[in-house]
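Page 47, continued from p. 46.
Same chain as before, 69 aa.
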Amino acid sequence: MRGDFVLVEKVLRREYAVIREGETALTDLWFGMWEKRLASGSGRTIDDELKAEVRRLYPPPTRIDFRTK
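Result:
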């Protein structure tokens, strides 16, 4: 992903009925988008602290969250 947040958000709005439980590709994309978005907007480095902040502040929508709880 090279900063095209609009395209990434468009992809993540699609319906994904064929994805199996436990799949993390979409949530990985979601978190990566927010990590890069926050880092580029603030000049921060993507580190463990930023990643934890993203996971706390930007949970993925249920329609793309197939992770096992």
